[in-house]
Task: structure prediction
Amino acid sequence: MKKALDQNNKMVDIIESVSENTYHCSVCGENLTRKFGVQKQYYAHPKGLGEECELKMKLILKQEELILQQSESNILSDEFYNKKFDNITIELSDYISDDGYPLTKEQKDIIDSTEDRIKISALAGSAKSSTLYYYSKARPYNKILYLVYNTAMKSEAQNGNFGKLNFVDVKTVHGLAFGHIGRFYKDKLTFNYGTVDIIKDLNLNWHNDMELAVKVNEMMKQYMLSNAQTFEDLELFKKDNMRKDILSCCHKLWELKKKYKNNVMIEHDFYLKLFSLSHTDLSSKYDIILLDESQDSSMMMFDIIANSNVKGICICGDRFQALYSWRNAVNIMPLFEAKEYTLTTSFRVSQNIAHIANLIIGDMSDNDIQMKGFNTKQTIVDKIDKSKPYVCLCRTNAFIFAEIAEALYLDKNKKLYFESGYKSYNFENISDCYYFSIGKQTKNKILSKFKNYNELEDYSEKTKDLELLALIRMVKKYGSRIIDIVNGIKNNSVTKKENADILFSTIHRSKGQNYLLPVYISDDHFDIESEYYNKFIEVDPEKKKVNENLFEEMAIVYVACTRCAREIQLSDSIKRYLLLRHKTNGHELHNVINIIDINNKEEE
Result:
């Protein structure tokens, strides 16, 4: 039986209206009377609910709640609503979640799937993790490996629903590889291995061999994330006159890294590559593999998954949240041959934010997939109230630093929380770099590799090292103020979100988050009026398809707009993008995002 809510507020085959306030049970036919309790409306069943009737009644209640709340929370004009949001249908199933709510038909189709290999295209907030949980729960006689993107997602899964399933192992892909191979290298691990280290470990000349070292570093990184079996298999530097020397250095460095007992450090991707090259048979321990965040994977990961001998594989991702191409991440969804399912109902956002997300998706792709907003409690505001706790999302660490500087200037006692912990943002590197710039020596692992600040600047310019260039810019911008700001961060940081006045996160780190606090998106996104933007963007007037150079910039905006479940303040650059890129009628779009003071920018 189809159970659907359409835009005309009709519920199909669930209930029929007998009179204005009377309904009947679709199972037994008895009349139901709507009553109103302290917190919500409910229906009285004259004979008491049997199990089957109770299930149907839960569906009725949820559908009625959706209709009521959608009509109350709509901040669009009726004309705009009818024009843009026609034919929106959220289909619910007769499957009930652990919390007593009906799952969507899309979720049920995935849970009931019988194919050996499936892939799930899941839009932001569409309960993909919950769907993978119910998919696993329906297969209790299989040993399942659930691969997640990072340790935060691992902890969330283990402390949440997946902790109930003793037949599921939750691991990061690096955690999987560490257990097999990486543990033998635990004393050699570092997060900061780069060109300077290569020069030292290969005894290269600082000035004459700088270009060679940079290219060796680039090839090593690409090799570790690729499915190439040898360095020679890579196309990188294929026509470069230095290729022979590059390959020779790569082979030498690889062998040095493989040795357990020397001072040549390794990155975490090194032992992951060794694990991939070992062709470990995962089917000896697991029957099914689940892979989350497949849009930010790698060709090496694709090989590990696709060539495993397990009887079932399910990969899940949202290609519009692909944020790590700068780390050579790859969306493996198109490469994975499997039956494709979709999750398009976002439980996190309202239909208004879903509409904005769909505008962004439309620019990123000619795919006709559309997000449907389920959350009726979310609102878009001109300004959030910063006197109360809120979330600040920034594109870069540099802008987080700028937001902190402003916040502490206004109130030096503000309590600060940082997603993933404040130490992971490396604010001490900024103060160390300032001290280094005024001639003081430092024990900083990165800066101590250089003789002086001039050498650091020279190296940064030659190698275009983005991390070091950012540090140098921060020193030039803030000067001695850096010390007070960093000390303020140390003194005001808290370890629990509930104790914070401001919760900071980069948009990259916010992936997967569902913030209930008001969210403020810092205005450090691309500026479509800037020379940089206009230099790189190309839009097909027919398809409005954004050039791939800016796909990731669009993905960042998409992720930022879909993190909040309550109040959200969009940045001015996002508002300008929505106005200028789509040439939308200014009055109607104002009703969606409450734009102020930019009426003169309604046309490109």
Notes: Residues 122 and 318 are 5 Å apart (CA to CA). The mean pLDDT is 80. The chain is about 40% helix and 15% strand. Residues 379-601 form one domain.
